[in-house]
C-alpha cells in the first residue's frame, strides 16, 4: 500500500484538507504586500532643487530642462549680493539644500532623499530584499529537509512579522535594508514549506486546483495592497499594517500537521500514525484510522523507510544525470520567469498611468491568466503550458521595443499581457517542480530553483541601467531570456496524472517508460511490414 492509498483510507479530500489548504492559503494573501511593497513605499515623486536660503522659490531660480520643466538635480549657482539668473544661462551646481517634492504620500524616497545621485539606492534596497529571498531558499530548504516543514514554516511566519515590523521603525536606510533582507529571507521559508505541505496532503487530482488557488490568493493580495496603499499614505504605517498579521499566522500554523512523508523518512512512526488517525477522525473516518497500526504503517511504507538511509544534498542535483538534466532546465525556466516578471511588476511607474489603477490592472490580469493556466496544465500538460507561457511573455516584451513611448495604452496592454503570462508561468512552475523532484530531494530542489528566480529578480533592476546606452536594450535582454526559458521547458518530462516520485529510481523509470512508449509505435510499424518476394524463378 502506497502513501496515496493510505491517504484515501483516512480521507484524501475531506474537511481536513479544506481546512489545511485554507490555513496555508491565508498567509499567501500578504505575500504580494511584501514582494511589491516598494512600488508604493519607494515611489519617486516629481521633485526639484530647493532654492538657496533667503531667496524666493520661483522657476527662475532653477535651470530649465529640454522639456521645459525645472531640472531635478541641478540649480543655478547663487552668490551673495548678486542677482539670480532669470533665464536658462548660468553656472549650475547640485542640490546642496535638498529637494522640494510634489508628493501626496510619504515614502522612503522623500524621507531619505533617494533621488539624483542617491536614486540607485532605492533599486539596491529592492535587490537586497530579493537577495534575502535567494539566500533563504538555499538555507531554509536544507533546514526544512532536516528539521521538518512545519517548524520552518512557523519560524518563517514569526521572522516575517518581526522583521517587517522592524522595517517600519527603521531610523536610517541601512537599518531599513537589513530588515528588508530578513523579510525576504523569511518569505522563502513560507513559500517552500507551503508548496510542499500542499502537494503532500492533497490527492493527485487536486494538486493543480489547490496550487492555482494559492496563486489566486496572491492575486487578491495585489488588490489588497493597492487598497491599503491608497488608504495609508504614510510608508511606515503601511509597512506595519502588512507585517503584524503574520504574528497571528504563526499561531494558526500550530493546526497545520507535519508532512507524513517527512516523518516516515525520519523514523517518527508513532507521530505519523497519530497524525493519520487525527486526520481520519477529522474527516469522519475514525474507524478506518483506528484500524491503522504501527506495524502496518511500517510494512506498507517500507520503501519510504529505506529512503531515510540515503541522504541527498544540493550536489546530488548536479551529480546524478537525470536530476542534473531537470535542474538545468528548471533553473533556466525559474530564472527567466523571475527576471522578466519583476522587470514588469516593479516598472509600474514607467507606463505613465495612475499608480493605483495600474497596480489593480496588473493584479487583475492574474485572474484569467491563472484560470487559463489551470485548464492548460490539467488538459494539455505541464511542460507544454510552461513553455508557451514563457514564449508568449518573451514575445510581448520584445514587442514593446517597436511601440513608441507616446502610445501608452498599447504599451500598457502588452505589459499587462506579458505580466499575466509570467504570473501563469510562476503558478505552473511551483506545481511542476514539486512534481518532478522525488521526495528525497524535493525541498532541496525547490530551494535551488527558487534561488534562480530570485537571482533573476535581483538582476532585473540592474539591467534597466543599460537603457542609458540604448533604450531598447533592457527589453531585448528580458524578452530573450523569457524565450530561452520557454524553450528549456520542452526538454522536461510530463507529470500530469502521475503519482509523486519517492525515489530517484522512480524518476528514472519515467524516462524509460517514455522511451518505451515511443518505441512501441515503431515496433508496430516494423511488424506490419511484409517483405515482398521477387517475381519469377529463383
What value does the Rg take, in angstroms?
28 Å
Report the end-to-end length measured between terminal Cα atoms. 63 Å
Order the strands across the largest sheet as they lie in space: 1-4
Number of strands: 4
Shape: elongated
- Regarding quaternary structure, how should these chains be classified? single chain
Strand proportion: under 5%
Explain how this protein is built:
- One of its GO terms (biological process) is monoatomic ion transport.
- It is found in: Endomembrane system.
- Its main location: membrane.
- The protein has 538 residues and is mainly alpha-helical.
- It is built from 25 helices and four strands.
- The strands form two sheets. A two-stranded antiparallel ribbon has the order 1-4. Strands 2-3 form a two-stranded antiparallel sheet.
- Helix 7 packs antiparallel against helix 8, helix 9 crosses helix 22 and helix 18 runs parallel beside helix 21.
- The C terminus is likely disordered.
Give a short summary of the structure.
With 538 residues, this protein is mainly α. The chain has 25 helices and 4 strands.
What's the layout of helices and strands?
Elements: H1 3-10, H2 15-25, H3 31-35, H4 38-41, E1 46-49, E2 75-76, E3 92-93, E4 99-102, H5 108-112, H6 120-147, H7 149-168, H8 173-201, H9 204-231, H10 235-243, H11 245-252, H12 260-265, H13 269-282, H14 286-291, H15 294-300, H16 302-307, H17 316-319, H18 321-345, H19 355-364, H20 366-379, H21 382-399, H22 408-436, H23 442-463, H24 473-489, H25 504-528
Helix pairs in contact: 2-8, 6-7, 6-8, 6-23, 7-8, 7-10, 7-11, 8-23, 9-19, 9-20, 9-22, 18-21, 18-22, 18-23, 18-24, 20-21, 20-22, 21-22, 21-24, 22-23
Amino acid at each position: 500500500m502506497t502513501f496515496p492509498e493510505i491517504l484515501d483510507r483516512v480521507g484524501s479530500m475531506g474537511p481536513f484538507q479544506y481546512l489545511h489548504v485554507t490555513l496555508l492559503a491565508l498567509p499567501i494573501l500578504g505575500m504580494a504586500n511584501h514582494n511589491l511593497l516598494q512600488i508604493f513605499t519607494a515611489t519617486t515623486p516629481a521633485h526639484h532643487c530647493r532654492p538657496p536660503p533667503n531667496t524666493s522659490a520661483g522657476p527662475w531660480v532653477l535651470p530649465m530642462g529640454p522639456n521645459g520643466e525645472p531640472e531635478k538635480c541641478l540649480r543655478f549657482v547663487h552668490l551673495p549680493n548678486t542677482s539670480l539668473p532669470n533665464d536658462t544661462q548660468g553656472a549650475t551646481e547640485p542640490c546642496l539644500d535638498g529637494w522640494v517634492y510634489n508628493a501626496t504620500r510619504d515614502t522612503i524616497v522623500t524621507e531619505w532623499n533617494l533621488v539624483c545621485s542617491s536614486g540607485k539606492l532605492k533599486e539596491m534596497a529592492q535587490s537586497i530584499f530579493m537577495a534575502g529571498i535567494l539566500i533563504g531558499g538555499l538555507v531554509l530548504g536544507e533546514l526544512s529537509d532536516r528539521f521538518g516543514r512545519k517548524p520552518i514554516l512557523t519560524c518563517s511566519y514569526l521572522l516575517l512579522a518581526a522583521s517587517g515590523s522592524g522595517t517600519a521603525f527603521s531610523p536610517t536606510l541601512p537599518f531599513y535594508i537589513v530588515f528588508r533582507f530578513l523579510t525576504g529571507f523569511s518569505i522563502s521559508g513560507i513559500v517552500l514549506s507551503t508548496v510542499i505541505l500542499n502537494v503532500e496532503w492533497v490527492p493527485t487530482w487536486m494538486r493543480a486546483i489547490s496550487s492555482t488557488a494559492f496563486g489566486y490568493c496572491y492575486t487578491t493580495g495585489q488588490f489588497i495592497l493597492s487598497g491599503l496603499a491608497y488608504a495609508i499614505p504614510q510608508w511606515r504605517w503601511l509597512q506595519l499594517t502588512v507585517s503584524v498579521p503574520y504574528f497571528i499566522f504563526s499561531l494558526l500554523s500550530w493546526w497545520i500537521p507535519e508532512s507524513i512523508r517527512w516523518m516516515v523518512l525520519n523514523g517518527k512512526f508513532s507521530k505519523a500514525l497519530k497524525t493519520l488517525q487525527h486526520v481520519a477522525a477529522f474527516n469522519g473516518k475514525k474507524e478506518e484510522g483506528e484500524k491503522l497500526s504501527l506495524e502496518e504503517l511500517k510494512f506498507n511504507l517500507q520503501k519510504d523507510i529505506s529512503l531515510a538511509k540515503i541522504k541527498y544534498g544540493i550536489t546530488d542535483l548536479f551529480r546524478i544525470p537525470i536530476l542534473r538534466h531537470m535542474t538545468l532546465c528548471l533553473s533556466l525556466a525559474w530564472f527567466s520567469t523571475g527576471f522578466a516578471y519583476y522587470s514588469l511588476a516593479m516598472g509600474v511607474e514607467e507606463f505613465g498611468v495612475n499608480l493605483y489603477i495600474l497596480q489593480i490592472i496588473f493584479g487583475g490580469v492574474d485572474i484569467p491568466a491563472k484560470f487559463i493556466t489551470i485548464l492548460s496544465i490539467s488538459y494539455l500538460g505541464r511542460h507544454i503550458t510552461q513553455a508557451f507561457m514563457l514564449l508568449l511573455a518573451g514575445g510581448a516584451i520584445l514587442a514593446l521595443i517597436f511601440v513608441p513611448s507616446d502610445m501608452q495604452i498599447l504599451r500598457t496592454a502588452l505589459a499587462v499581457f506579458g505580466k499575466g503570462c509570467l504570473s501563469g508561468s510562476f503558478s505552473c512552475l511551483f506545481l511542476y517542480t514539486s512534481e518532478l523532484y522525488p521526495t528525497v530531494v524535493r525541498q532541496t530542489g525547490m530551494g535551488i530553483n527558487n534561488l534562480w528566480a530570485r537571482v533573476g529578480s535581483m538582476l532585473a533592476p540592474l539591467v534597466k541601467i543599460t537603457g542609458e546606452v540604448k533604450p531598447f536594450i533592457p527589453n531585448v535582454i528580458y524578452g530573450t531570456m523569457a524565450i530561452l526559458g520557454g524553450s528549456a521547458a520542452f526538454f522536461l518530462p510530463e507529470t500530469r496524472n502521475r503519482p509523486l516520485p519517492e525515489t530517484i529510481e522512480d524518476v528514472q523509470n519515467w524516462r524509460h517508460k517514455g522511451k518505451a512508449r515511443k518505441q512501441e509505435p515503431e515496433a508496430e510499424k516494423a511488424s506490419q511490414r511484409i517483405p515482398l518476394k521477387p517475381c519469377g524463378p529463383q
